Amino acid sequence: MLPPAPAKRTDDFVNHQLQELPLSMKYRETETHFYMDFHSHEGYEIYFFEEGSGYFLIDDHLYPLEGRDLILISPHESHKSSPKLESPSTRSVLHFLPELLDDRSRDYLLEIFSLSLGHRHVRLSEERLTRFYYLLDRLHEDYTARSGDQLMAIRIYMSELLLELRRCWYSESVTETQAADRRNVNPKVEHAIKYISNHFAENLTLELIAQELYLNQYYLCHLFKKTLGITITEFILQTRIHHARRMLMHTDMPISEIAGKTGFNSFSYFGQTFKTITGATPRDYRKKHQKLSE
């Protein structure tokens, strides 16, 4: 069974926008029916979950989401958000390239994105939230205008926002907040995610994963879908294709070999799945991204 193809592929959309301006911004968007594919893209990402609840996945690390939560994603890290659909969720998302920042302060401001995955999630205090909203609002005003002095203002406000986040991340209260949040993550779901991420190249079956977790297959399926909004089979395929994309972009390995190394026993099924998820054949995908890197 092939996973559903998203109506708009998030990575392609973000990469296209970043070619026009080194910043892409979604501002306080509220949605009741939200789907994000498991994806990665150029540039850094600041994901601010303002209202609602759900989960956020970076590689094999699962975070619980509540209002005022902020998550940092580095370039080419596979990730996916999964808000609970019973109530609306509101979020703001910033994607940006490092060249948006001044050379002299760039490494300092981007240091927080190099933290381990266990330390990329924080819940903003009311005091910091007020300051964050001020900078986010100013940034959005100038981002919408996008001309003349606004481009300089975008660089300034973005630097100020990153400086504020750096202060937040290195404050004494951050560790306590993260430790409390981790208790809301279902360990069985996270175990399943880590197991799939470590064994995606093998012949994975639902029965095998359920045995590894000492769970009933049907209960595991229900728990996984409820948490991430996709089935285990869909997650396995998306994980395999994500790794295949990386190999196509960064190696000269034959496509048939890539198919085998990402867990596909059938080359034709690999091609069919790859096109369903990415919108392109493996060969066309490699040509496109090799051309972009020249």
In percent, how much strand structure appears in the residues? 15-25%
Helix/strand-derived category reads alpha+beta
CATH superfamily of the largest domain: Regulatory protein AraC
CATH topology of the largest domain, by name, is Jelly Rolls
Instruction: Figure out the total of helices.
Output: 12
Give the averaged pLDDT, no decimals. 86
Query: What is the second-level CATH architecture of the largest domain?
Result: Sandwich
Q: Under the CATH scheme, which class of the largest domain?
A: Mainly Beta
Order of helices and strands: HEEEEEEEHEHHHHHHHHHH
Biggest β-sheet, characterized?
5 strands, antiparallel
Rounded to the nearest angstrom, the distance between the terminal CA atoms is: 36 Å
Based on DSSP secondary structure assignment, what is the total number of beta strands? Answer: 8
Q: How many domain modules?
A: 2
Gyration radius over CA: 20 Å
Strand order of the largest sheet: 1-7-2-5-8
Q: Segments where pLDDT lies below 50 for 5+ residues?
A: none
